[in-house]
Amino acid sequence: MTRRAPRLSSRRVPGASASSPCTAPAVGGRGGALPSESPSRRRVGLPFTPPGSGAEEAARRARGPMGWRRAGRSHAPWSASGAGRGRRSGKAIMKKPRTAVRSRHRKQASRQEGREKRVLSSSQVKPPTPNGLARRQEEVVLQASVSPYHLFRGTAEVRAFRENLLRWYDREKRDLPWRRRAEGEVDLDRRAYAVWVSEVMLQQTQVATVIDYYTRWMQKWPTLQDLASASLEGVNQLWAGLGYYSRGRRLHEGARKVVEELGGHVPRTAETLQQLLPGVGRYTAGAIASIAFGQATGVVDGNVVRVLCRVRAIGADSSSALVSQHLWSLAQQLVDPTRPGDLNQAAMELGATVCTPQHPRCSQCPVRSLCRAHQRVEREQLLASRSLPGSPDVEECAPGSGQCRLCAPPSEPWDPTLGVTNFPRKASRKPPREECSATCVLEQPRAVGGPRILLVQRPNSGLLAGLWEFPSVTTEPSGQRQRQALLRELQRWAGPLPATRLRHLGQVVHTFSHIKLTYEVYGLALEGETPVTTAPPGARWLTREEFHTAAVSTAMKKVFRVYEGRRPGACKGSKRSPVSAPSSWKKPSPGQQLLDSFFRPHIPRDAPSLNSTAQ
């Protein structure tokens, strides 16, 4: 009789037959897996380590006394494709692919993982991310200490969540360009690139804004090779106005690394994506791996945080390490092994369109029957209407001792007027620090070929790295020293200048993610001087048309509108800057029109000031 490998102590799920393989781990009493998952995935969602290999001994040492596998993912060539599912008694049963396309994708993923292993052995790899053994050990400890109220009741509840959410997604999902491109792309690297670009652009940016940028980006650089051969200047130019400019720079760096160091192939797993590609964190890596390569790995973004906190009534600070770790654990438990990318996108879609921050549409939510926040609201409504005697039977958190670490603190009790928006708890944000900068639009009205304005390039690191701006200096809020410092900066780029013509025009307040920057806007026109045709390194004289297509930040566009509104000859009484549109412009898309309307300020004649928040 073949001796079985050690198994996790378990209990049978209620309703399961004696022959059913569905069991739930004894630790925490929750979180069983579906019958379609292999025993190894039922333990911790990891691929099988083949017997007789060196990795088997390491895996055996990593297992606890009850057979719980705590080690990180195996790097066996077939681990990314899921071919190790269906293992019994330490033997691997290789299932035949349903289609030739799936078989070809698995072979590509297998060959690519071999390349990744060779690259990972080089000295150029980033330090290992905090996953693997340490992360699994933390998840075990967390699950054991969490109240069952904040967990899913094993197989049946997880299956219901998956099926309801995917059925809704298939019916209601939005038609977005990156989804069409990924779904219709057979080549794995091109599919991963399409997903990668969209996920980077969507960070901290609304879908309506991203659509136009994504379309123009993919038209200009349809492949990784095209992006790798592009200049950083061109990348910054297309990214201008999208905000968080380091995203575009890192995307460009990542494309170059894939082409120059990885043979043109994108890493196939979340772990290697995060380790090998600059600017790719845990969320982006999981999104690419699940959507493009079908890896069963969960993702957690702002939308998923909101959905999971409401579904499992998690009222503690969602930005804390404890809550974040628990949310990632729930996301991994919920991800569908057969449709991981769709499940992840469905959860994000639900948070973006139904389970919204301020006005959730609970009546249209496909998982409201599983939502603890919704159950709490219904209970409150029943008690208020007195339609039923006594208290309705609704489960509540009952920790063994002390205050539950995932519930809201006693100082922040349930507010009946907020309903489900009691979750998640809004973390206290540190206000942005305030800074002041003096900037000047220096113009040659009579330059050859038309008026020209001076732009200088920012350093290659730090805020707005590599973008172009009007000459600026960081100064105190006001005073004569500000003018003197700005004049010195102007003369450094343009030589001697008529200081008496330097005019203060107004003020622009622009808020970045961590800085509230006030620009004191000045203007200086070189009317009688001999036109300058050259500029020192790091500076350029541009026409107005060139300015509108240059890699400049949103803040500089606002500064230029103030200058245009106050320069001599501007249309009196006009609420809009008299900037003529270049003849080469086409009618912008609806998304771009919305973006332009946001950046078009009303400038009072007596005290021009723009106060708005950056995207």
* Tally of DSSP helical segments: 21
Shape: globular
Flag low-confidence runs: 1-102, 117-129, 571-586, 598-615
Q: What is the CATH class designation of the domain at 433-565?
A: Alpha Beta
Q: Approximately how much helix is present in the residues? A: 40-55%
Q: How much of the polypeptide forms β-strand, as a percent range?
A: 5-15%
Q: Can you identify the CATH superfamily of the domain at 433-565?
A: Nucleoside Triphosphate Pyrophosphohydrolase
Rounded mean pLDDT score: 76
What is the strand tally?
A: 10
Structural class: alpha+beta
Q: Which CATH architecture of the domain at 433-565?
A: Alpha-Beta Complex
Q: What would you note in describing this structure?
A:
The protein is an alpha+beta fold and 615 residues long. The protein has a domain of 133 residues: Nucleoside Triphosphate Pyrophosphohydrolase (Alpha-Beta Complex). Helices cover 40% and strands 9% of the residues. It contains 21 helices and 10 strands. A hairpin with a 3-residue loop joins strand 7 and strand 8. It is globular. The N and C termini lie far apart (66 Å). The N terminus and C terminus are likely disordered. It comes from Ailuropoda melanoleuca (Giant panda). It catalyses: Hydrolyzes free adenine bases from 7,8-dihydro-8-oxoguanine:adenine mismatched double-stranded DNA, leaving an apurinic site. Pfam families: EndIII_4Fe-2S, HHH, HhH-GPD, NUDIX_4. Belongs to the Nth/MutY family.
Summarize it:
It contains 21 helices and ten strands. By secondary structure, it is α+β, with helices and mostly antiparallel strands. The chain starts with 9 loop residues before the first strand and ends with a strand.
